[in-house]
Amino acid sequence: MPDAPASPDPADTGRYDDAFMDALRLRGDELADATVEALFTAGDVARFNTLMRWFTTSGQPLPDGLPEPARDYLHATATAPDWVDWAVMEEARRFFIDNDVHISTALSFASMPACYMVPHVARLLSATHSLDYPSRRMAETGQFTVYLMQPDAFEAGGRFLPSAQKVRLLHASIRRHLREAGRWPEPVAICQEDMLGGLMMFSIQVLDALHRLGVHMTPQGAEAYYYAWRVVGAMLGCDHAAIPPDLQAAREFSDRYMLRHMGPSDEGAHLTRRLIGLYEEVVPGTLLDPVVPALIRFLIGDTAADWLQVPRSRWDDVIKVAPALLGVIERFEDRGPWAAQASDRLGRLVTRLELTSLTRGRVMHYALPEDLKPAHGVPATSRWSPPPPITTP
């Protein structure tokens, strides 16, 4: 296959037009892809997975017997990008601590359904995570975010960097499997456009959900939270030059990406049903079960919720008081440092309890799949075409 063209600079065009986005669809992650190809060619994947199970913290010596391509990759990706502003990262961490329950809610009830709104992403998740186990995907995402926002995330002893290194290789192995099996209708699975689209779902679309919930955010805090995900994107193999540089650019990219790809699909509806069932199991009893689909519908809107076949209930109107209830909590926090500290501690406890319910108390490991289950093939279907955007004179 000839080398894919380099991404055009969006600053050259002044907007994320189709030519820019189409170029991103032809590119994967060169470093991770080359590493995975070397591991598979040498038959070293099983040995790599066994050894890497014990490599979980930054600064930990790499295991003896690690294949050389993997050792080179882990050395090359062992630190954060040299352009990181650590003062902004600390501001992002404080933003997360102040809003951790709200962010977890947004990730669970807005970001994950947003992934399912993109048919080819829903098919990819179906093929690689199985339609019946969305809890694993949720657990991995929650654990990854918690690792990111720890004070030692990028220091020796932190768990974030090894997780990022493994996720990047996991994506590369999925690209290879789908390419080798001819089970992906486009040149590259998990391409740069989709990687950046996912970044938008876990950053600006989370901020959108917080805004809809009525969570008070300063512009500085929101920008810092997005900045942290820019760092994450670079560490997961996104082309740094193509990552939207600020929230305004992220909004433009996110809107363009969703307009190009969003729509209904059987896989998206099935994944959403499984997600709703998962959280109904987490909520004690059955009285509050209808809150789960009502919250999803509230956060993603009726059109998207209908695409995903989110059921309607009497709670659809009740849930709209959520911003008012959160306003009461925020006024409690404003009563003094003791109130804010108590609220933060309660938030961290709720977040950890939610994560524990998904992980069953276990650390999630990111292993490279040696194959994909044949039953989870990805059909080469035609892309759904959204209606043209409405323009005003």
Briefly characterize the structure:
The protein is mostly helical and 393 residues long. The chain has helices at residues 10-13, 18-24, 30-41, 45-52, 68-76, 86-98, 100-116, 119-129, 134-148, 160-181, 192-201, 204-213, 219-235, 247-261, 266-282, 291-300, 302-307, 315-318, 322-333, 337-359.
Query: Helical region count?
Result: 20
Low-confidence stretches: 1-6, 334-364, 375-393
- List the secondary-structure elements in sequence, H or E: HHHHHHHHHHHHHHHHHHHH
Largest beta-sheet details? none
Shape: globular
Task: Please give the share of residues in helix.
Answer: 55-70%
Oligomer: single chain
Arithmetic mean pLDDT = 80
Distance between the termini: 44 Å
What is the structural class?
mainly alpha
Number of strands: 0
- Using only C-alpha atoms, the radius of gyration works out to 21 Å
Portion of residues in beta strands equals under 5%
| Overall number of domains | 1
Write the layout of secondary structure elements.
Elements: H1 10-13, H2 18-24, H3 30-41, H4 45-52, H5 68-76, H6 86-98, H7 100-116, H8 119-129, H9 134-148, H10 160-181, H11 192-201, H12 204-213, H13 219-235, H14 247-261, H15 266-282, H16 291-300, H17 302-307, H18 315-318, H19 322-333, H20 337-359
Question: Would you write up a description of this structure?
Answer:
This protein has 393 residues and is mainly alpha-helical. It has one domain (14-59, 67-365). Helix content is 62%, strand content 0%. The protein contains 20 helices and no strands. It has helices at 10-13, 18-24, 30-41, 45-52, 68-76, 86-98, 100-116, 119-129, 134-148, 160-181, 192-201, 204-213, 219-235, 247-261, 266-282, 291-300, 302-307, 315-318, 322-333, 337-359. Helix 3 (30-41) packs across helix 10, helix 6 packs across helix 13 and helix 9 runs antiparallel to helix 10 (160-181). It starts with 9 loop residues before the first helix and ends in a 34-residue tail after the last helix. The relative contact order is 0.16. The model is unreliable at 1-6, 334-364 and 375-393 (pLDDT under 50).
